[in-house]
Amino acid sequence: MMRKRDLTKFLEANNNTGIVVIDDQAYEVFLSDKGSIEFSGIYWKWENTLVPSSHQDYLIETDELVKDYSSTPPTMSEEIHGMFYKDINEL
User: Fold this and answer.
1) CA distance 53 to 75
2) How far, in Å, are 2, 52, 55, 60, 81 from residue 27 at the CA level?
3) I need a labelling partner for 8 at 20 to 30 A (CA). Which of 27, 28, 55, 71 fits?
């Protein structure tokens, strides 16, 4: 759990952007010019996919992080239950 002011400090130290994971969903957030935390509308989800082996003779099932867009991001309360990351590569 983190308070909004702590997340604000985290975003300021990270070029005003970051990733917040709420209910197992990773959302891109940024710090607005007015200092409020905003959702960009981008979220990331894991999807199962099949990729060919190095010799192309069989398929391997794996997970892939896929970018998607949301017109209804979650609301952010004063206390946030989730994890925070500098960017999507940290997930």
Assistant:
1) 42
2) 16, 30, 36, 28, 13
3) 71
What 3-state class would DSSP assign to 89? helix
How much is the pTM?
0.80
pLDDT, tens digit, 9 for 90 and up, residues 18-64: 999 988 889 999 999 998 999 999 999 989 999 999 999 999 999 99
What is the residue whose two structure tokens read 């300021």?
Answer: 12
37-56 burial: b if 16+ Cβ within 10 Å, else e: bebeebbbeeeeeeeeeeee
List, for residues 51-65, the tens digit of each pLDDT value. 999 999 999 999 999
Q: Is 24 helix (H, G, I), strand (E, B) or coil?
A: coil
Q: Which two tokens stand for residue 28?
A: 């891109």
The answer to whether 39 and 27 are in contact (CB under 8 A) is yes
